[in-house]
Design goal:
- This protein has about 220 residues and is an alpha/beta fold.
- It folds into 2 domains: about 140 residues, Response regulator (Rossmann fold, 3-Layer(aba) Sandwich), CATH 3.40.50.2300; about 60 residues, Arc Repressor Mutant, subunit A, CATH 1.10.10.10.
- The chain contains 10 helices and 6 strands.
- It has a 6-stranded parallel β-sheet with strand order 2-1-3-4-5-6, sandwiched between helices.
- It is elongated, with a radius of gyration of 27 Å.
């Protein structure tokens, strides 16, 4: 079975050599190159085409995040894994946004590092426990935000009135008469409601109105 080729990009010599030594003990991992900054890492990645790049973040000349961006742009199939001491949310977001397959802290054990390399090589994602918690919390936060975007709160009072009347089965002409507005204005409100709720048919609007309690269906 072919070994997993790994490029190590780390500016601290002792740390880089230590990681390199630990990985050299694994039969299925081959350290094909070492770089001490982002620019050198990009150059070596293009020359060596490694399976996995292990990248630090804070390095001279070019930081790890910017290096990841360039590597993923020119070599999208290459798996890149961040290994750093940084736990700041800003770094985590930027790294994930640029397409890293892993984010490990330098406090990780040898076993965790080796397993992470094998995981990302197979197409998986490897995260340190504290980073996993952040990603999960971020997902929940974004899900809550999306719910707010999809909610009834997005609609104006007039749009809610139009939605309620649509759900009650009234025609545009009847809605116009009820609200003392023109049919063309009703059409504008209907279009706005559908766009804001991302619902594009009357049946969907009725279902949404029932779920939100805008109308009550007799049992």
């Amino acid at each position: 079975m072919p070994k997993i080729s790994v490029l190590l990009v780390e500016d601290h010599h002792v740390v880089r050599k230590g990681i390199s030594y630990l990985l050299s003990l694994e039969e299925d991992i081959d350290i094909v190159g070492e770089a001490e900054d982002g620019n050198e890492g990009i150059k070596m990645a293009k020359e060596l085409c490694p399976d996995v790049v292990i990248m630090d973040i804070t390095m001279p000349n070019l930081n790890g995040i910017d290096a990841v961006k360039q590597i993923k742009k020119s070599m999208p199939e290459t798996k890149v894994m961040i290994m750093t001491m940084h736990t700041r949310e800003q770094y985590i977001r930027q790294a994930l946004r640029e397409g890293v397959s892993g984010y490990l802290l330098k406090e990780s054990t040898q076993e965790e590092l080796v397993n992470a390399i094998r995981t990302v090589h197979k197409g998986g994602v490897a995260l340190s426990p504290s980073i996993s918690r952040f990603v999960l919390n971020e997902y929940v936060r974004q899900s809550d935000s999306k719910k707010e975007v999809d909610s009834i709160e997005l609609l104006t009072d007039r749009e809610r009135q139009v939605l309620r009347l649509i759900a009650e089965g009234k025609t545009n002409k009847e809605i116009a008469k009820c609200l003392s507005i023109s049919k063309s204005t009703v059409n504008i409100h209907r279009t706005n409601v559908m766009q804001k709720l991302d619902i594009h048919d009357t049946v969907g609007l009725v279902r949404y109105s029932i779920q939100k309690g805008i109308i009550v269906v007799d049992k």
